[in-house]
Amino acid sequence: MVALLMGFISLTPSFPSLPCFPPLSFNKRRPFFPIAAMSDDPIRDWILSEGKATQITKICPIGGGCINLASRYDTDAGSFFVKTNRSIGPSMFEGEAHGLGAMFETKTIRVPRPFKVGPLPTGGSYIIMEFVEFGFSRGDQSVLGRKLAEMHKAGKSSKGFGFDVENTIGSTPQINTWTSDWIEFYAEHRLGYQLKLALDQYGDSTIYQRGQRLMKNLAPLFENVVIEPCLLHGDLWSGNISSDKNGEPVILDPACYYGHNEAEFGMSWCAGFGGSFYNSYFEVIPKQPGFEKRRDLYMLYHYLNHYNLFGSGYRSSALSIIDDYLRMLKV
């Protein structure tokens, strides 16, 4: 989601104003500085054991944000990307790691491989993952479309719609309770959850009541549609799409779950997908009847989330989509 510009950190190593520096070392003759033992630094411990490094040669900050901090750890065994959060426990990063791991296992599109999630001894949490050296563009859109469709085709679930863990969309909890019916899942755990947040946070009974009417009348939008639970990135916008140094597409910062493949395009209003992207995608997974009628329905979830996170600037877009569907469905 767009909130990641303000929160989650891009992996792009292009912040010249942030200096790289060698690993900290404390002078033991100055006891008034707190000296962290090796066992008190789980990030360093993992890198120097399971990460198979013998020394950390450089630690380089990569940007900053209001949610997480990010660093590149250079070692004699390669580089690692580390995100830390000093106030949130491991559950948020566990959700991210599960998503990255699931996408990685499809062996289709490149994602940073997750290695380790854990708590920090002073509070908060961390995640260690593969460091991806990015190129200078977002890559070829036709390749992105094809590889994304291949991921959707390869990543299937026998449990229905949902995910093994709850995660977040930006900083909003995303409920992933396994559900056998897609319409029920999307209505309750995506639209319904966001509508309730808007009611609780803003007292917005108008958008809540109209949204509830829409939730109860979604079935006509899915007539003659075959819906399989596909592995979705879940938050695919331009800030979460890049390419590696070879020009291959890379996607990151997911909010994964198994859902209708078309829901992946819910952030298309700020993803910049062009004709070549969709043409390549639909060559792998053909477009189904009524696709155009459902596009705004999947955007609605993200507009509601932005409304709940950033305020009234997104309310009119969300309400307009709801009202358009109520007129279309005549309910």
TrEMBL record:
Location of this chain's protein in the cell: Plastid, Chloroplast
Coiled coil: none
Keywords for this protein: ATP-binding, Chloroplast, Kinase, Nucleotide-binding, Plastid, Signal, Transferase
Signal peptide extent: 1-16
Enzyme class: transferase
Domain of life: Eukaryota
Main location: plastid
Reaction catalysed by this enzyme: N(6)-D-ribulosyl-L-lysyl-[protein] + ATP = N(6)-(3-O-phospho-D-ribulosyl)-L-lysyl-[protein] + ADP + H(+); N(6)-(D-erythrulosyl)-L-lysyl-[protein] + ATP = N(6)-(3-O-phospho-D-erythrulosyl)-L-lysyl-[protein] + ADP + H(+)
Enzyme Commission number: 2.7.1.172
InterPro entries the UniProt entry points to: Fructo-/Ketosamine-3-kinase (IPR016477), Kinase-like_dom_sf (IPR011009)
Record GO terms (molecular function): ATP binding; kinase activity; protein-ribulosamine 3-kinase activity
Any GO CC annotation of this UniProt entry: chloroplast
Family as reported in the entry's similarity comment: Belongs to the fructosamine kinase family.
Function: Initiates a process leading to the deglycation of proteins. Phosphorylates low-molecular-mass and protein-bound erythrulosamines and ribulosamines, but not fructosamines or psicosamines, on the third carbon of the sugar moiety. Protein-bound erythrulosamine 3-phosphates and ribulosamine 3-phosphates are unstable and decompose under physiological conditions.
Protein name: Protein-ribulosamine 3-kinase, chloroplastic
